[in-house]
Amino acid sequence: MPRLVLLACLLALLPGCGRDPAPAPAEAMPATAAVANDTPAGRRIEDDVRTLAHDRMEGRFTGSAGYALAADHVAARFAAIGLVPAGDDGGWRQRVPLLRARVERDGARLEVRRGGRSIALRPFEQFLPLPDFARGRSDATAPAVFVGQAIDAPELDHDDFRGVDLRGRIAVALGGAPDRFPGTQYAHHASLRTKAEAVAARGAIALVLVHTAADEAGTPWARTVERGLQPAMRLRGDDGRAFDGGPALQAAAIVSAAAADLVFADGPRTAAQLADAARAGTATPFALPGTLTLAARTRIDTLDAHNVVGRLPGRDPVLAGESVVHTAHLDHLGRGADGEGIHNGALDNALGVAIMLEAAHELARNGRAPRRSTVFAAVTGEEQGLLGATWLARRPPPAVGRAVANLNIDMPILTAPTRDVVAIGVEHSSLKAAAERATAEVGVALSPDPFPEEAAFVRSDQYAFVRAGVPALYLDGGVAPASAGQAPRVAATWFLRNCYHRPCDRADLPIQYGDAARLARVSAAITRIVGDDDAAPRWNDGDVFGTRFATSGGDEE
User: Fold this and answer.
1) With a threshold of 0.85, does the pTM exceed it?
2) What is the predicted pLDDT for the residue at 188?
């Protein structure tokens, strides 16, 4: 998918924000010949997919009754496989405490006071106030400063804050990152969280993120607003506040591309000119005349969700306290708005959970566990911002031990037969050697990330472990065709355009269960290699993630 789709999603910081294409007319699915699911492993995976993607699970929305049913199924499967509980208090579940926030229509305000006049933007039509998880009312009035794309990346010789004093001011920024930034670094610096943290660290009291036309070519403004009216979630700490802290801003909002020039009115350059400079990496900061006012009301409540966690104890008394952690998110989107019906999430991510269960079966069945322990976690809240994985990485139950590697499976689009697998992120750590050896043992090709512009390595649950300093891989379906006339890339593109995050992501898609079973064998093989190695996996010397997270003992927060 093009970078602009990724960018628009990264700007939104809203529930369900992943590889979300703009709505497209329904198209006929590429023809795929029927393939018999005639192996025990394939049939086990299919049974799990059909169970987890059944209507009675009601789309497995985080914290819902349907999600609880799905968690019951996974716990029962863990027990049948022979794992031991690794959740809280000797059970299968790990409680994930959450805050839930919804922006209210009343009270939203963004006003530009400049040159003796006042410009009031229309809420939800021209701007979207973002939820505040710390207070019910957000309010900030101050002078504003344009700070380019709000990026400080010394490793790329880029600093949008050079010479700027943001203390007590409102930061105005554009989304994205310069075009020259590599994919994963582009995604990291393009995220709203990273930008908000950067401006807050420099003393800003609020952030206004301004969309460009390129942003909304990927996700139209109406779609951004639709998401903004849905509840958002954050982790809840022991003190009842947001666990992951987040930037200490008094208010934040996103402005539509159509209203961008209102924010920059009477300034030296238009929004389009500033956007061009930002993409080229030449935008320079400047103070905007007058003041901005931001205000919003947020309705906040609490809920508890759960990860489901099982463990295969390691056989080495010394290394058993370390663990290779497998993750696959169990949650999906629940019931759609406007009568869309149930979002069953067969590929996203019932299939990923089913493959993880098969990998657990593969490792447990021969009675010889790896030297290190292996943890399997069906995590919650991925669609809300990697919440369950973050809680597991930051607050692991004692039975999990010390995570030394993470293997994540999320939405493998296995709707056309392949002869390869993909391990996204292999270039960052010593896990590359394990992946190469494992695929050779299984007899399958290892392909590079087919869509590097999507920067998937920073966009699924493995990134929660990366931010905790743990080397990780994102295992995905392959792209090399196994039969003439059936192109996996074409099939994947069709799914993303037509069924991703839509009700047609159902178990009646032509899922290649043989390929799914093969991916489970690769996952198990990597686990054996890593689990039996004398040395734990490590980041490559000078790697951007090892430098940013591991050497500082974990997350930057």
Assistant:
1) yes
2) 82
- CA separation for the pair 407, 413 (Å, rounded): 17
Indicate the helix (H) or strand (E) that contains 171.
Answer: strand 170-174
Look at residues 359, 324, 354, 370 and name the one whose alpha carbon lies nearest to residue 465: 324
Instruction: CATH number for 103-300: choose from 3.40.50.1370, 3.50.30.30, 3.40.570.10, 3.30.450.20.
Output: 3.50.30.30
Q: Is residue 304 a contact partner of residue 98, using CB atoms and an 8 Å limit?
A: yes
Span 441-460, pLDDT tens digits? 999 999 998 877 777 888 89
Look at residue 335 and tell me whether its pLDDT is greater than 90.
no
Secondary structure letter of residue 332 according to DSSP: B
Candidates 423, 427, 452, 456; CA nearest to 439 is 423
Angle at 29 between CA 24 and CA 34, to 5 degrees: 160
Nearest to 191 by CA among 21, 387, 11, 460: 11
State which fold the 36-85+313-552 domain adopts: Aminopeptidase (3.40.630)
Give me the phi and psi of 332, to 5 degrees please.
-145, -150
* Mean pLDDT within 503-525: 96
**pLDDT interval class at 113 (50, 70, 90):** very high
Tokens of 109: 């305000």
Rounded distance between C-alpha atoms, residue 162 and residue 296, angstroms: 30
* pLDDT attached to residue 376: 98
Q: What is the DSSP letter of 230?
A: S
Distances (CA, A) of 291 to 95, 118, 200, 284: 44, 10, 18, 20
If one compares 228 and 310, the residue with the highest pLDDT of the two is 310
Tens-digit pLDDT profile for residues 479-497: 999 988 788 999 998 998 8
Q: Whole-angstrom Cα distance, residue 197 to residue 342?
A: 36
Dist CA 554 CA 468 (whole Å): 4
How many C-beta neighbours within 10 Å does residue 320 have?
18
Domain layout of the chain by residue ranges: 36-85+313-552, 103-300
Beta strands 137-146 and 286-312, pairing class: antiparallel
